[in-house]
Amino acid sequence: MKKLILYPSIILLSFSLVHAQDKFYTKTAKVFFKCTKPSSPEKIEGTNKSITCVLDTKTGNIQFAVLMKGFEFDRALMQEHFNENYVESDKFPKADFKGQIINNTDINYTKDGNYTAKVKGTLQIHGEAKNVETTGMLVIKNGKPGINASFQVQLSDYKISIPSLVSDKISNTVDIVIEGNLDPLK
Amino acid sequence: MSKKKIIILIIAILLAGVSLYIYKEYNRKNKDLGKVTADMEIQSSDLIKKFETDEAAANKIFLTKKDFVVAVTGRVKEVVKDEKGYYTIVLGDTAAFSTVRCLMDSMHRQEVSRVKQGDKLTIHGAITGFNKDDLLGSDVILNRCAIPKQLSNL
Lengths: 186, 154
Fold this sequence. Notes:
Chain A has helices at residues 2-20, 76-86; strands at residues 23-36, 45-56, 61-67, 71-72, 94-101, 113-125, 128-141, 144-154, 170-181, 183-184. Chain A is of the alpha+beta class. The longest helix of chain B is centred in the N-terminal third of the chain and has 24 residues, at 3-26.
């Protein structure tokens, strides 16, 4: 009787251990963006500290969810303009990225180290979806992945228009940095 | 003073007033929510329910009014400190999967050191939205959060 329970339990337990470290996530990933033109008297930049990210290490599937109202700015007026006039967060409260690490097989998630990750996927901002491709860094430390990537987007691709009045301050090209440390999903 | 001089003086004062207003408005920083009166008081479980039932309607209530501040009351499920030292107080019932995540304003960091799991707390914050997620658990997210002194039982 004991053997009947013990052996299947061992097999089931080993299955759960093998699959335990498949998915990693964070709810505190950060996105920092800047689109300051050299002629601008002030910096046009904002930070969002509550990005959700899920990474499936088996498939390389990676997703991010962004709440646009979570972007913080130094000046309240810039934050209001960002929400009301540029990203129209009342109409489009969320942005997201759904993609794949296309060289996922090059990454050994069980071995600590720095790995280059080529990411390809769909970025959705302001109701517009575009294919993006970029290279980022995956740092495995104590068995947990940390992500870091920098890339650029064109505001016009996402139907975000810059009024001519501020065209000397705000650049159509936005530099974005995304980073976060992921924990295993139990 | 001559009539002309009075008119010039009035215009000068008006211009100074307008300039000061523009300067202040341009440089206005986000309000410290620890010191303001909340626009709405709500229990964390009710807040979650509002978003889970009808996200679009909840967005209309909480996201469309400028500087709308909520006072959310609930039990502390977890206190999260991220790699950059920013704190998030997670409110929710131990049994429930959905939570209210309150990103603390960096100026209110020291208050968080006294917060423990299980504490009943009221937090002031600005709602940034609802992350619906069946895998990770859905969350109502707030930022610029502060624990108002008069309501703190810490």
